[in-house]
Structure to design on (1083 residues):
């Protein structure tokens, strides 16, 4: 009875003075999927696994810690930009949205993103707290437009068991990776002779993104200025030709798997069908878990490294990443403060997110013991400094990636000559950028 | 219940095309009238105007003393049986018959009574729960008639209702329709292009031709005294033979005409002074001819086709100059195609048509 | 109406046809069987290789995971509301419009009909931005009405129903007019029941199209509780579902297609008629 009375009083108070309601709701829109069944109520972050599990638990925990803030999560199909565009058009954009660094310029250049410098400053977060790879990707015109959440890149996932068979392990059991195109071909031949399997496991069917990512990496390693003018791509130089020639030679010399789509490439490596999988950061956890189980191709024989330096000019690798942006909209100071709290919470838990396999963006996490003790992370930590994005001003990076991937793919598969492919790619990209 | 129908000065035009031109017709209460004519003569249009399915350009229609051409179809008190029957395919026989009554809020027990009575008369009471898809053509026809009967209309309108039936069924249904008319005593209008139906069913036949009424009369009047060459040729099977007249000679009993290929034919017809002899013809029905012995007087007919009908034999032949003539012989005729026979013509039965198609008949009854 | 003979003797009497049909059937069924197989396997096992589909053990855990997500039922209901609402709306409007075009005399009838037919040639892509803007003005996004409304103007439906009404002999209307039925009663009690085969065809196509619709719901229903099943299921896929969650993906596909399968089972006869084009009997 007493409880009922109290409840009634509370309700009537609420009804009388809506202003007394201090609750703030943050509309958060993200990809990474839904996993309510497993993590719907979980708040133990350290127990969560995988992108979906960790982000879901993070939000749950934040809500538990901040009872006055409600985070209303909307999951969207990856990458969710159609939906976001529609929301922006109808002025119903959410408060916080997950966004690839490579997509940000499209929104920022049209003034659709809110600069976050003040929000971060309010939480005592400084730009210098983040890794170069991360903060440079989210900084446009000297303003920070996203809370950098992670960096991801293509890596060399290595099957040590097969490498051993090919005599490509050092005495202390580390794989000997190529450090130039010549060593790559030599080792590839050696590997093939010993195992009768291709050296590299690459994604080459149904998806062209990996062509573009590898190409960007090879260009960056030559310190190429192919986007010197962010409104024009320049693929006419020898650097582009060298990069593509290398990619094509790998296939022509039989050093790579062929015709595998993404899932097939993932399982081909898991089944020991090749020595090195050229694939993303996100697979570390999966392969590492497999290597700890007995009686499979990766048992006790998995390691992972950044894509080696094939050109001498620069140690670089193309990296993208996920950040949290705040779309343009009317928000109260109260809400912006709540968003700041949420961002601080994400920042504080950057380590937990790095357990997904993605690289952390917070410097002190990279150097922390906890991160280094995660499997293989010390081997790839340098991506935080060598990781490089396309120039922040380049628009339509998703579309550009498609065009380049498509054209390079047709050169690698000998449907087009190298010159022809580069010329067409350049023409199509510039045509796209001119007609925005 | 039943009522007379008056059609006054009805004209129907579609844009510049005239379909019916100043039609006047009075149909007595209880009369069975058949509109007969070739297709396109406007007979169906006239019927549909009575039903309210076609608008009227000029004129009026009355049923009883009430003008009805301004009323919607459903309120004219007429029932129609369509050529295609137009039963509602998704309704049972009973529902088909009761639909119209439900629409005018007849009490349910009254509906049941009328439907059951009509079904009994038409011998379709065992089909009441079937849908049209499971009925034969004849059965559908009966249901269509039943749907009309239950409405107890002032007049029944039939639009070529027998044309979708096979020959045997058509003959039987014709008879039943005649009986139905006797039994109900209702005013009925029946549209057909089949002269046999017209002859057997009608109290009066209305012959329509070229947007106009050509002749109104009892079947026998129409048959024996066609007002025009058109009527004479349209009514009667086989059609009346038409022989071109070369010369006319007046005699006391009538005129003697000279027919090409046949020589002189004596008739009992008196022609007026202003007779238009140009393109005039003499018309002879097959039954008004007879095959006689070669010694007797007559025309020589070379037979092309022999049509044996059992009770009589029709001989299709040509006269010496190629003019066609149809003659009749007895059922036991031995005449074969290719033979030449002598044909005599009954002088009183011939008809003369002037150049305008206007008919002149013998004054004496045959 | 031509009757089909499905007896085995009849089918096998034309051996070539039988084998062609059998091969085509297998080709069409293979992906379905494959996806059902995937849905019954553990995700981790599939990651190593999809040939695992052919071996024990099988599990229902993927289906359990779908059902445990509390949002799925909401999305399912949304899809149902949208699909059924659209179906009823399209049937109603197309029937009325079809009747009007086939039977009523009104000014500009032919012109209007041609304009409607032009609608068949206008792709959704051409109008979607303007439509999105309009719905924004009227504040219709994230509502069931907003999801149902755009597809109610079905050019195909109007065309189909017009043709169907035209195919009904005019004498049926005339008989009903003589039976003193009002225009509406003729439409409702006499003609509409006769269009049932067309209604079934149009209804099934509309339902399937609405159920599978993706693009408009994607940009109109941007709030998770307004998602239709297609959007909801897509949104709940993790980024690497195609490798790490293949079994779950399969289960989602099977789950989402269940209503379609049910519709097919119930309306099989009408679908066959619809597809074979012999809608008028």
């Amino acid at each position: 009875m007493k409880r009922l009375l109290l409840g009634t009083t509370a309700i009537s108070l609420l009804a009388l003075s809506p202003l007394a309601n201090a609750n703030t709701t943050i509309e958060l829109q993200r990809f990474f999927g839904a996993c309510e069944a497993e993590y719907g109520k979980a708040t133990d972050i350290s127990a969560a696994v995988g992108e979906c599990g960790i982000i879901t638990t993070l939000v749950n925990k934040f809500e538990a810690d901040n009872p006055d803030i409600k985070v209303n999560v909307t999951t969207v199909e990856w990458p969710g930009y159609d939906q976001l565009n529609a929301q922006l058009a109808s002025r119903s954009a959410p408060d916080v949205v997950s966004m690839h660094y490579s997509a940000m310029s499209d929104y920022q250049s049209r003034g659709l993103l809110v600069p976050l410098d003040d929000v971060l400053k309010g939480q005592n977060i400084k730009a210098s707290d983040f890794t170069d790879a991360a903060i440079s990707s989210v900084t446009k015109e000297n303003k920070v437009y996203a809370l950098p959440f992670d960096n991801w890149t293509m890596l060399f996932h290595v099957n040590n068991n097969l490498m051993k068979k090919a005599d490509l392990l050092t005495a202390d059991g580390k794989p000997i990776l190529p450090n130039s195109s010549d060593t790559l071909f030599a080792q590839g031949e050696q590997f093939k002779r010993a195992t009768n399997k291709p050296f590299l496991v690459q994604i080459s069917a149904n998806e062209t993104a990996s062509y573009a990512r590898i190409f960007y990496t090879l260009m960056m390693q030559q310190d190429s200025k192919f986007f010197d003018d962010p409104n024009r791509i320049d693929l006419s130089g020898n650097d582009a030709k060298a990069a593509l020639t290398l990619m094509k030679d790998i296939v022509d010399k039989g050093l790579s798997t062929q015709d595998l789509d993404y899932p097939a490439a993932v399982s081909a490596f898991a089944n020991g069908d090749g020595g090195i999988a050229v694939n993303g950061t996100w697979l570390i956890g999966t392969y590492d878990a497999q290597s700890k189980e007995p009686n499979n191709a990766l048992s006790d024989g998995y390691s992972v490294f950044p894509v080696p330096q094939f050109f001498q000019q620069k140690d670089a690798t193309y990296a993208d990443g996920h950040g949290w942006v705040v779309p343009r909209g009317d928000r109260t100071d109260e809400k912006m403060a709540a968003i700041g709290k949420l961002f601080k919470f994400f920042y504080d838990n950057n380590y937990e997110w790095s357990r997904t396999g993605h690289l952390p963006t917070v410097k002190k996490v990279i150097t922390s013991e906890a991160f280094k003790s995660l499997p293989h992370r010390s081997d790839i930590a340098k991506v935080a400094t060598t990781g490089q994005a396309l120039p922040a001003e380049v628009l339509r990076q998703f579309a550009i990636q498609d065009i380049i991937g498509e054209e390079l793919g047709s050169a690698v598969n000998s449907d087009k000559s190298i010159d022809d492919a580069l010329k067409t790619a350049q023409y199509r990209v510039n045509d796209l950028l001119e007609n925005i | 219940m039943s009522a007379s129908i008056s059609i006054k000065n009805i004209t129907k035009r579609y844009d510049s095309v005239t379909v019916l031109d100043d039609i006047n017709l009075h149909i007595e209460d209880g009369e069975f009238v058949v509109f007969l004519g070739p297709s396109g003569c406007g007979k169906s249009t006239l019927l549909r105007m009575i039903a309210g399915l076609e608008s009227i350009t000029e004129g009026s229609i009355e049923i009883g003393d009430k003008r009805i051409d301004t009323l919607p179809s459903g309120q004219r008190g007429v029932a129609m049986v369509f050529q295609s029957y137009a039963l509602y395919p998704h309704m049972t026989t009973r529902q088909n018959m009761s639909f119209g009554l439900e629409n005018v809020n007849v009490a349910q027990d009254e509906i049941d009574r009328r439907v059951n009575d009509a079904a009994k008369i038409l011998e379709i009471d065992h089909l009441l729960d079937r849908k049209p898809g499971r009925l034969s053509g004849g059965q559908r026809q009966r249901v269509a008639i039943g749907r009309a009967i239950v409405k107890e209309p002032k007049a029944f309108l039939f639009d070529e209702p027998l044309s979708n039936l096979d020959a045997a069924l058509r003959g039987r249904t014709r008879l039943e329709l005649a009986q139905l008319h006797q039994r109900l005593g209702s005013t009925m209008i029946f549209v057909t292009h089949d002269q046999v139906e017209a002859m057997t069913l009608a109290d009066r036949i209305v012959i329509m031709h070229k947007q106009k009424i050509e002749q109104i009369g009892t079947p026998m009047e129409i048959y024996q005294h066609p007002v025009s060459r058109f009527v004479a040729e349209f009514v009667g099977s086989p059609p009346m033979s038409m022989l071109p007249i070369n010369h006319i000679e007046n005699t006391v009993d009538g005129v003697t005409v000279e027919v090409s290929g046949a020589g002189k034919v004596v008739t009992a017809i008196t022609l007026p002074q202003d007779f238009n002899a140009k393109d005039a013809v003499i018309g002879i029905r097959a039954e008004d001819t007879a095959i006689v012995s070669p010694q007797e007087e007559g025309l020589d007919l070379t037979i092309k086709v022999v049509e044996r009908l059992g009770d009589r034999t029709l001989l299709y032949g040509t006269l010496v100059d190629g003019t066609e003539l149809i003659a009749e012989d007895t059922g036991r005729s031995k005449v074969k195609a290719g033979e030449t026979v002598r044909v005599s013509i009954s002088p009183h039965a011939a008809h003369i048509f002037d150049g305008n198609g206007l008919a002149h008949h013998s004054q004496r009854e045959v | 109406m031509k009757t089909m003979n499905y007896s085995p003797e009849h089918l096998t009497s034309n051996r070539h046809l039988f084998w062609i049909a059998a091969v085509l059937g297998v080709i069409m069924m293979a992906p379905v069987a494959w996806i059902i197989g995937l849905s019954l396997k553990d995700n981790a096992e599939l990651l190593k290789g999809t040939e695992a589909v052919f071996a024990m053990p099988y599990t229902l855990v993927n289906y359990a995971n779908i059902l445990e997500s509390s949002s799925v039922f909401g999305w399912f209901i949304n899809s149902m509301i949208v699909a059924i609402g659209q179906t009823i709306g399209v049937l109603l409007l197309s029937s009325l419009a079809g009747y009007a075009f086939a039977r009523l005399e009104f000014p500009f009838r032919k012109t209007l009909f041609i304009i409607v037919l032009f609608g068949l040639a206008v792709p959704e892509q051409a109008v979607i931005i303007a439509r999105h803007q309009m719905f924004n003005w009227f504040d219709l996004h994230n509502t069931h009405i907003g999801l149902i409304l755009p597809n109610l103007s079905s050019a195909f439906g109007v065309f189909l129903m017009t043709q169907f009404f035209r195919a009904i002999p005019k004498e049926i209307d005339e008989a009903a007019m003589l039976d003193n039925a009002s225009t509406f009663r003729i439409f409702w009690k006499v003609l509409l029941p006769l269009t049932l085969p067309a209604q079934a065809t149009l209804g099934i196509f509309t339902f399937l199209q609405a159920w599978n619709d993706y693009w408009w719901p994607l940009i109109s229903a941007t709030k998770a509780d307004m998602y239709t099943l297609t959007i909801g299921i897509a949104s709940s896929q993790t980024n690497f579902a195609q490798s790490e969650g293949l079994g779950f993906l399969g289960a989602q596909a099977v789950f989402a297609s269940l209503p379609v399968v049910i519709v097919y089972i119930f309306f099989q006869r009408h679908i066959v008629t619809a597809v074979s084009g012999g809608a008028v009997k």
Observations:
- Chains A and B do not touch (no CB pair under 8 Å).
- Chain A has a mean pLDDT of 90.
- Residues 142 and 204 of chain A are 38 Å apart (CA to CA).
- The first strand of chain A starts at residue 24 and ends at 30.
